[in-house]
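User: Reviewer 2 asked us to show a designed sequence for the structure in our supplementary figure. I'm pasting the structure tokens here. Could you produce the per-position amino acids so we can include them in the response letter?
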């Protein structure tokens, strides 16, 4: 289960615009537990669960609590992938598991525009998303070399904490949009 701790303001750290987290499929059509998307499965066959990361599959109307749970799962995914990387584990497999739990690759169209991606700003496939999260080098993906250093591993420094600060959450039946920012703590420097 996901902890539903309130998102409290944290000391000022690195601030980035928060991604739009929303679900657009009817809740009745959401799989109970999304496995690793086909596009990602090819990249890693040894994916294992990352502690604290569980796919959020609301039943009925999406609530603010569902949005916060999705944000918490995403935060846990980023810090979990970083931890696996820092401990010398298979961070690519960890990222593959997280991508399968939190994104709809292989199940529906995914509208993903990574914050730091400029040369290749849209990531319509699981392989494209994985290059962004773990780095082009780790994925042996020449298309993104020089652009993707591994967001989830912070270019090798890792993230120890990710905190969402929601300005507003707008729930409309089977869709919801959150606006705010999020704070990342560098695992190496503490900044």
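Assistant: Here is a per-position design you can include in the supplement:
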């Amino acid at each position: 289960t996901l902890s539903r701790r309130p998102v409290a303001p944290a000391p000022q750290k690195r601030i980035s615009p928060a991604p739009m987290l929303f679900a657009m499929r009817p809740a009745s059509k959401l799989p109970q537990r999304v496995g690793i998307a086909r596009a990602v499965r090819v990249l890693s066959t040894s994916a294992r669960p990352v502690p604290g990361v569980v796919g959020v599959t609301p039943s009925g109307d999406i609530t603010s609590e569902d949005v916060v749970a999705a944000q918490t799962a995403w935060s846990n995914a980023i810090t979990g992938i970083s931890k696996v990387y820092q401990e010398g584990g298979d961070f690519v497999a960890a990222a593959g598991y997280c991508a399968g739990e939190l994104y709809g690759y292989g199940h529906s169209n995914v509208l993903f525009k990574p914050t730091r991606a400029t040369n290749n700003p849209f990531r319509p496939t699981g392989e494209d998303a994985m290059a962004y999260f773990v780095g082009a080098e780790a994925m042996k993906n020449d298309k993104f070399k020089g652009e993707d250093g591994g967001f989830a591993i912070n270019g090798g420094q890792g993230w120890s904490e990710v905190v969402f600060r929601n300005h507003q959450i707008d729930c409309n039946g089977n869709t919801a949009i959150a606006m705010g920012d999020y704070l990342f703590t560098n695992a190496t420097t503490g900044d």
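For the response letter, you might also mention the following. The chain has one domain: 14-186. The helical segments are 38-41, 64-86, 91-102, 126-134, 136-139.
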